[in-house]
Amino acid sequence: MTTTLLRTAGELHARARAGRRAVVMTMGALHEGHATLIRTARGIAGPDGEVVVTVFVNPLQFRKGEDLDRYPRTLDADIELAGQSGADVVFAPSVDEVYPGGEPEVRVTAGPMGERLEGSSRPGHFDGMLTVVAKLLHLTRPDLALYGQKDAQQLALIRRMVRDLNFGVEIVGVPTVREEDGLALSSRNRYLSAAERRTALALSGALFAGQDRHAAQEALRARAREVPATRARAEALSAIGESRAAADTHAVATAVPGGPAAVRAAARQVLDEAARLDPPLALDYLALVDPSDFTEIGDDFTGDAVLAVAARVGATRLIDNIPLTFGSFGAAS
Description:
Layout: E1 4-6, H1 9-13, E2 21-26, H2 32-45, E3 50-55, H3 75-85, E4 89-91, H4 95-98, H5 118-121, H6 125-140, E5 144-148, H7 152-164, E6 170-174, H8 194-226, H9 231-239, H10 246-254, H11 258-274, E7 281-289, E8 303-313, E9 316-326
Parallel strand pairs: 1-4, 2-3, 2-5, 3-4, 5-6
Antiparallel strand pairs: 7-8, 8-9
Helix pairs in contact: 2-3, 6-7, 8-10, 8-11
């Protein structure tokens, strides 16, 4: 399809609108993860709607010494991929268009949630992110905006801002897209050498290890719940060749430390091994958090959680996460 490149908000506002406008915000260097967001937006907006992809490298999200200058700029390729994925418009404003008075004196503050994890590692990052998201929502005037779940803390903060400040826009989260080897798609992956990429696979490997441990524990809880804690329970387990595991099954299913501690331990083991590789993985954080506020969950937690990791391999910093649900089978009997 033909994709129009626009540089100013005035040009975008002058376009006739019929159906819903869906916006996908990016910093360019588009890849398959962005393409998935755009295709999802196209499906939601429908044939009568409009999909706008923003391409803007936001200087407020980079501190001194970070990779603002080396962040890839590939606008021609971005326009081509956006069009192939279903975008009607690529909105690529200049810094002066977004910040006409220079860096803004008044900014959106992320609050306590923005000081944790990514916010602790990159002070001020989320204030800059929320400020530009607020600006781009005003400049593009969408009905809905889509963001990837790979940036889970960012997505949570955007949702909170939209709710707290009464933005009239629907926020849609889209699952993380991964490469065949499991590495989460990111524009920064291109910075990795072959050896660094092998080490970087520990991020997704740690998450999958935690996920596997979680699935095993939830299965044990389900088994313990299904079989009453009586002599009949032991006989039933014995009948299927699991008499030796009967006590362990019950202990795992009812233990107070339970799932979160074991999930963290399984993920940590993978990361510890990666720290001894050449080149090594330098862990920034591993966290198992409540997605509503990004605080660490306790051992008795039930509900949705996010297992998140951030690390450096060489000069490249990468993040990843995976959603988990604790207590989905209820308490063991």
